[in-house]
TrEMBL record:
<feature type="domain" description="Enoyl reductase (ER)">
    <location>
        <begin position="7"/>
        <end position="320"/>
    </location>
</feature>
<dbReference type="InterPro" id="IPR051603">
    <property type="entry name" value="Zinc-ADH_QOR/CCCR"/>
</dbReference>
<dbReference type="Pfam" id="PF08240">
    <property type="entry name" value="ADH_N"/>
</dbReference>
<dbReference type="InterPro" id="IPR020843">
    <property type="entry name" value="ER"/>
</dbReference>
<dbReference type="InterPro" id="IPR013149">
    <property type="entry name" value="ADH-like_C"/>
</dbReference>
<keyword id="KW-0521">NADP</keyword>
<dbReference type="InterPro" id="IPR013154">
    <property type="entry name" value="ADH-like_N"/>
</dbReference>
<dbReference type="InterPro" id="IPR011032">
    <property type="entry name" value="GroES-like_sf"/>
</dbReference>
<protein>
    <submittedName>
        <fullName>Zinc-binding dehydrogenase</fullName>
    </submittedName>
</protein>
<dbReference type="InterPro" id="IPR036291">
    <property type="entry name" value="NAD(P)-bd_dom_sf"/>
</dbReference>
<dbReference type="Pfam" id="PF00107">
    <property type="entry name" value="ADH_zinc_N"/>
</dbReference>
Amino acid sequence: MKAYVYGAQGAAITDVAKPAPKGTQVLVRVRACGLNRADLGMTKGHAHGAAGGVGTVLGMEWAGEVAELGPDAKGLKVGDRVMGSGGAAFAEYTLADHGRLFHAPSNMNFDEAATLPIALTTMHNAVVTNGALQPGHSVLVQGASSGVGLMAMQIAKLKGASLVIGSSTDATRRERLKEFGADLAIDSSDPGWVDQVLKATGGQGVDLIVDQISGAVANQNLAATKVLGRIVNVGRLGGTHADFNFDLHAARRITYVGVTFRTRSIEEIRAIFDEVKQDIWSSVETRALRLPLDRVFAFDDIGAAFAHMEANRHLGKIVVTL
């Protein structure tokens, strides 16, 4: 089968053996794949948790049809339209655990379905589970113009946030954040952004920051979070290391939580998928929670799709179809 593999000369489409499902695994005929920033790093040879390196079939997010079930897979049948996340997604067939799948809504095509699994699971876990968002809370999403950032703002609004603030350093994308739930859009490269947040919150700061930038704004985040507020760190676009004001962290008694799928067990991931199904899935089915498709590429043009992502001028998801 065709797959997009990182090799000694870089990432390229090549032929690999079709996998076979074991245990609770499901074999899926892939129809569309969503691109993510971690994929871009892996095309350059970077590791993502335990994944990466020569011989790796790239990709983490997809939609398609169930082709075969492992002997212990439950809740699915051959032919079901599904969407999910896991390794080796950029291929004609991929394997996934039966608990790491959603049934694709009937009113959604494969391209649209492929945009959602990572954003839904990552940001429900960040905003609701670890962010402890309550109705009336105020939320700041750092890096809000990314696919997961757009989803974070929508989930915050859906769960009753009274004020949603989104950041983007790009003026064009910043203007569009209000389409996805932002009451206020800020530029995190502007030294005055903390003052804007404090003004919008009556001088107190926000209840919750969902931070995809980290290093570059770490201390500003502390200053923009209210006493007894929370910061959930889901990324490191601003760098993995930075100065950190421990005194300000202690003085404001901020709960600082780091989250990632890279170190989670399959049992933990299954629980996250179940929480999404139980809490917000009806809003996915009605399309109240959605992500814009920036561009769709044919699988043979996947290199151009990654070039488009690296140019960093897109809003929403880039998808490749098989």
